[in-house]
Amino acid sequence: MVIPNLHYKDLKDSYLFFKISQKIKAYLEEHPGARLYRLGIGDVSLPLCDAVIQALHEAVDDQAEAETFHGYMPECGAPSLRETIATHYASRGVNLSSQDVFVSYGASDELGDILDLFDRSNTTLVIEPAYPAYVDANVMGGRKIVHLASGKENGFLPQPDNSLEADIIYICSPNNPTGAVFSREQLQAWVDYANRAGAIILFDAAYEAFIEDADLPRSIFEIAGARTCALEICSLSKTAGFTGTRFGYTVIPQELSRYGMNFNDMWVRNRTTKTNGVSYILQKGASAVFTPLGQRQIRENIKVYKQNATYLMRTLDKLAVWYCGGKNAPYIWLECPSDMTSWEFFDYLLQEIQVIGTPGAGFGTCGEGYFRFSTFGNPEDTKEAAERLYALLSRR
Asked: pTM for this structure?
């Protein structure tokens, strides 16, 4: 008899967004035609930039002609695109070989697949509040998970200490859901810890394009010693609006080894065994992101989302509500007023001003009492939501 993966029984119900949808459904049934202002979901609202659209059209046309048709692509990515991404890193002072770069269908897929490189006996450290998939992917793999709580007292940016025992360390900076960004000194502490312990950092850089302060690192490889203890997973979903198009890339330095096993070589073998590569059409569209025109155009879209963040931050500043994120991240993480729980605050906003956010309790126990706003929404809706928020909370 086939034995299924019994670790699936250890998964907790993914109730967060289902519960939100049920509450919204009930509200709309009671208030038909009500206008809702959605600041909850972390999906983009602006279309792909013109440079990408043009490249995608050209790629489709290429597939219509025998002379330009492309079948299977190299499993690790087209050599020219891998070199383009390495050059993009070099423009920010990070020197990579094109062989360090692997293209993928997005960070979410890669964050789960990358665990193939690690034994089940490894202990995983997750800094919470956290993107729930970090935990679930490791539960499915049967690994022990250590939850490192963070909070207002450390700006949701905890540091390692000698009491920690971990082999795999998830770090997301800028963070989802908190929007907090690790400084160079703070990341250096984690890199030093990982090198001492023989651990490996899985650095989630999906939101690096939102960092505007020059002194904040956008890549783990800006930190001394990272090449021997870290790999980096990045995405064009929020950088360039590829949430529905799907494209990402992973950096695994050739220096990264444990027990005589080289992780770069292992990932080459993994990809050539388990994938047939990212499609030619998507790779051509992604290449356009890294052109001078593509970079200008995606920055214009990011400016729109950052203006959304400004609307919300100004409102929270006037209300004297504590928050982090926003300036260097597309998420704002705020303390619920009047000692409300996360779900009480959700209900309060929905019922009183028809604004929807995400309860912090859905991202781990230390998220209770906090709330996440996404800045990816429509600008006019975000501005209206900010005005409604001020009118509501200024009366309390």
From this structure: 0.96
